[in-house]
Automatic annotation (TrEMBL):
Top-level taxon: Bacteria
InterPro entries per the UniProt record, alphabetical: Bact_Kbp, LysM, LysM_dom_sf
Protein name: LysM peptidoglycan-binding domain-containing protein
PROSITE patterns per UniProt: LYSM (PS51782)
Classification lineage: Bacteria, Bacillati, Bacillota, Bacilli, Bacillales
Residue span(s) of domain LysM: 159-209
Source species: Paenibacillus silvestris
Length: 211
């Protein structure tokens, strides 16, 4: 299982130590209406934005018993990157391989702390809120453009994808093709690049997306 964050500029962060647990909070919103002689009535308004939270730490020194990889990021640099993302307005893609978590999120809060006897290590708590794309349309766009045609919002699938640290064929298929189950289709079209083992993909490999 890998925990990764990636921004629209392909800057990614692979968390070196897996959190012990992930908390996902889902709430339903209600509007409370007061009815004369009838008390209060809750009217459901829909599902609120989900919150995803987890805690871990950035170690200063590699330890094979809990680190996912050897080339560790500098703990303070990693925390500064998280802070930059939190202050920004672009959504991030949070991927937890081996689960269904492959969503666009905004980093809404993070806390960091240091512990005595562990110099250089930075502990953190992160809270994400799932992000939904929105677009404000003009009156002309709502009724059609100048040629009398509507303008559908179509998101084209990129022709190629460059493998990033922490990627798997399942996570790439989930992110780019909409379903992790299409990993076999992705592998079959890139077998000459990947080789005989679909679990061994290398950062920097250029994969061709299925049509």
């Amino acid at each position: 299982m890998n925990f990764t964050l990636e921004d629209p500029n392909n800057v990614s962060l692979w968390f070196p130590v897996n959190p012990s647990e992930v908390n996902i909070r889902r709430d339903k919103s209600f509007e409370t209406i007061s009815i004369i002689r009838g008390g209060e009535l809750d009217v459901p308004q829909g599902v609120k934005v989900k919150e995803i939270a987890f805690s871990s730490f950035f170690p200063a020194v590699y330890d094979a018993s809990y680190c996912k990889y050897q080339l560790l990021p500098d703990p303070q640099t990693a925390m500064n990157q998280l802070n930059t993302w939190m202050e920004g307005s672009d959504p991030l893609r949070l991927i937890i391989t081996g689960t269904d978590v492959n969503v666009l999120v905004m980093l809404s809060a993070h806390n960091s702390s240091f512990k005595g006897g562990e110099p250089g290590d930075v502990y953190f708590d992160l809270i994400f809120r799932t992000w939904k794309d929105y677009r404000i349309r003009t009156l002309d766009e709502s009724s059609g453009n100048s040629a009398g045609q509507t303008r559908p919002d179509i998101k084209l699938i990129s022709a190629t994808y460059q493998v990033q640290s922490g990627d798997s064929l399942w996570s790439i298929a989930k992110m780019k093709l909409g379903s992790g189950s299409r990993w076999r289709e992705l592998y079959d079209g890139n077998r000459t690049v990947i080789g005989d083992d679909p679990d061994l993909i290398v950062p920097g490999q250029e994969l061709v997306m299925p049509g």
